[in-house]
Amino acid sequence: MRIRPARTDEAAVLTELVLRSKAHWGYGAEFLEACRAELTIRPDDIRRHRVVVAEDADSGVVGVASLKGAPPEGSLGLCFVEPAALGRGVGRALYFHVTRAARELGFARLTIEADPNAEPFYRRLGARPVGRTASGSLAGRELPLLEVRLPPRTEGWTQTWTEGRRAVHLGNVAGFQSQFGPVSPQAAHYACLAAFLSPHPAVLILPAAVPPDWTDLIGRLLGWGPVEVYDGLTEPPDRPDGRTVGRTARVTRPAPEAQGDSLTRAVLSRPALLRRLDSLDLPLLPWGRTPAVAELTGVPLDPEALRYESKRASHELFTRLAPAHPEVRVPEQWQPATRRDAARLLRMRARAGLTTVVKTEHGAGGSGTVVIRGDESPGVLPRPKRPPLPRGPVLLEEFVAGKTEPRDVTFDGLVDADGRVHVVGVAVMDVLGTAYRGATVGPGVVPPALAEAVARFGAAVGERIAASGHRGWFDVDFVTGSDGRPAPTEINLRMTGPSVAFMIKARLDETRGGDHLVRSVDHVPLGARLPGPALSAFLRETTARCAGIDAVLLPSIPTAAFASVPYLGIVLAAHTRARLDAAEALVRAAARDTGRAFTTQGRPGRAPGGG
Questions:
Q1: Which of 142, 143, 115, 121 is nearest to 19 (CA)?
Q2: 551 DSSP 8-state letter
Q3: pLDDT digits (tens, 9 = 90+) for 363-383
Q4: Which of 39, 71, 294, 574 has the fewest CB atoms in 10 Å of its CB?
Q5: Pairing outcome for strands 421-432 and 435-441
Q6: Is residue 199 helix, strand or coil?
Q7: What is the DSSP string of 208-250?
Q8: Residue pLDDT, tens place only, 570-609
Q9: What is the pTM of this model?
Q10: d(CA 497, CA 487)
Q11: Within 13 Å of residue 197, how many CA atoms lie on the same side as its CB?
């Protein structure tokens, strides 16, 4: 099926299609005759009302839709499907086509005068009821009136981020982490999120092997063209390299003593891959900047560029910015000279009933952070039971108390090559204790006053880190106190889990229209280890079930499905919070139920392949 502009000589044929579609709801001949004048498509309407048709290779024209008005407000004038083609996604495709076109033309709002029978269809796709309106055909009859709010085009930051082109994505999560300390054992799995470093990749380079049909699945849902995948580049040499690659390098061989970013070094050591990247001449987007990435791209890494990845340095920056931002509070931080000093200060605060956050200077996703609650340590902490301090030097920080929702929020932005700061948005994070588990972005997720305060402070942080030499993505994390004010806690000078949600939202809004809610969930436990074929079948079935409730499921971390403790990372999208929550519940239940497939005669069995 394709969607194309209607021709003026099709006006009469399209009018009859509209009337057949209307009759599908059981209306009689008299009713339809009363509607004929209003539903007639005339030749001069075709261009004036931007009429398009859905055309099937076998059946010909199977649907028609139109966009009336002029920006900023208009209406979905028509959206009718040939009765024989109902249930094949024609109406949905036409709806998304019109809303996407409206957004590109600068419309901010569309109204829909819906047939009562069609109202549930439009509401499932994100239209909101706003009242009733008089029928244009029958006196005394009222119709549901709905509206579609179209988000502004994200061309500003997406165009800046990708130079308006597809890009090469480099999943060097471990390489970035290695600059600051031990690498998480989950880094290779987390690197799969690099598939979403831009809204539309051309090449994906990963350290570990991914399921061969994974990018095809997410690509179909996001409207990608073919993506070249080069995976398994840091796995043992007896495994075949991968299946393809991206962006260019000016250095063809790493120095023998080079250490750290093993994925980027693997690319640098492959001349054929470098030649391929050179031939594509596309932007290269790494998870994070490293000296090896500087060699690969030819863009130097400023010695101070990553300074504020330090929680010590970021707190100092927050303190300097605070006087100009009374809507934000900066928690007090102490920097003990020794671990003994840190333990002494913790005991003093515990005696006073004060809760303290203990942090390492660097760490991702909550690693290296613990909360010691004063109310759990009455009096003096027992000496044999020393405070559970993380390894290495630590920072102590005032715990910002409060039960205001949302509790954990984050600001995402980027600094372009010229040092200009671009605001991407504000997200709500899902944090359990100190561990990051996911994020949600979209309309209504963050209250406007809180979002404004966070964005204003985040943009100010962006100006300072740009002056220090940082270029690329960054985010600033906050917690909300009992007074409703956000408190900044750290800066991340790299891609993050929330950045994935922003990228997917930008792509879905562009390709499907509407204003999506998007939620990333980094860890969904599986009831059994799933080998390749079983994983593919599970993903296909669960993706289809989510589509059945008008939600989009994108598997974001598929490589941990056969780990010793198996799990999946997912991203979900929908037009309402209720459908987003329902889709997450559906996926979690399906994931738990995977264990049943490997149970025989009431006794646990073994997954195929030795799982």
A1: 115
A2: -
A3: 776 677 888 887 554 444 444
A4: 71
A5: antiparallel
A6: coil
A7: S---TTHHHHHHHHHT----EEE--TTS-TTS---S------S
A8: 999 999 999 999 999 999 999 999 977 655 434 444 443 3
A9: 0.81
A10: 20
A11: 31
